[in-house]
Model the fold of this input.
Amino acid sequence: MKTFYVTDLTNGLSLSGEAFAIAEVMRMADKYERPYLKLVLADKTGKVDAKIWNDALAKSDQKIFKEGSVILIDGSVEDYRGKIQVTVTSAKRADESKLDDFIEKSQFDATEMMSELMSYVEKIEHKALRSIVQEMFKDEAFKTSYKFWPAAKSVHHDFRSGLLQHVLEMLNIAYSMKKFYPMANYDILTAGIILHDMGKFEEFSINGISTEYSKKGILVGHIPLGALTFDKYAKGKLSEDLYYHMLHMILAHHGEQQYGSPIVPATIEAVMLSYIDRLSDKARCAVQAVEDISPGEEFGKYNPWMENARFWKGGNYDDISEELEETLDKQNEEGDQLIFSSENE
Done:
């Protein structure tokens, strides 16, 4: 049973026999060439950097330090350059049979999200296209991966059911635009959003709580893998134009060749998909950037994923709402006084 989660860690806290999963392991050497480990520890609430120095490392079983394993640690929590970090003084293997405490997951229920996703599949009016998408979800391995896969190894939606949440965010955004862009084909856009990241089921391999790139992921990448999966299900079942349009949606969804797309968006639907994808991605990055600001600090560190912006925690929307309400109340009072004065005159 865990006592402290990542979100509970504060400067000066001592940890004794506390369980965390290892998300990342980096073998390092200090200036005297003595080995030590940089770790990223994780549980269902998030991740935290940690170090185990040479003296503590020498007393520990080296075999337990692998990505995806769960360890019990003694140590201390400290502020390092404005960010919380754990110094591990001892570590031993923990029971890994129950991972629920250690897997960071979507705040939304995965079963409910899958139900919402399938309602979007039913919105596809083109029978052949809808049938192809439905056929994919009849594959239990595909459906299970879709329900639980992260959208990334790190950066955005990098948690259990993160890909599913990412896709639902995109679908909700897409349908909010329908009033203003009725000329777009929403069958193609819907199917494109649902299928655009399916190559990640082969790009990533999941080991316990750890997400790693597979051989296919490194050598091919999720965009071509997704196109190959679509071809397997759709070849010969669609008109030539629709078949190539759907391939284009998958191949162009990163928007620019420098970001991994072999082709840039060349249809209304592909452009919409690309920018909706980016909005969901960046909004999640912004949320994470604010959550990563250390307690007592107003600004975060330079964020390489967000144009090196330093995110501000001072945008307290509750306070803004209170201030706005006070301003409106004051304006209403002044208005009432003016009306009352006018009536007396």
The longest helix spans residues 317-344.
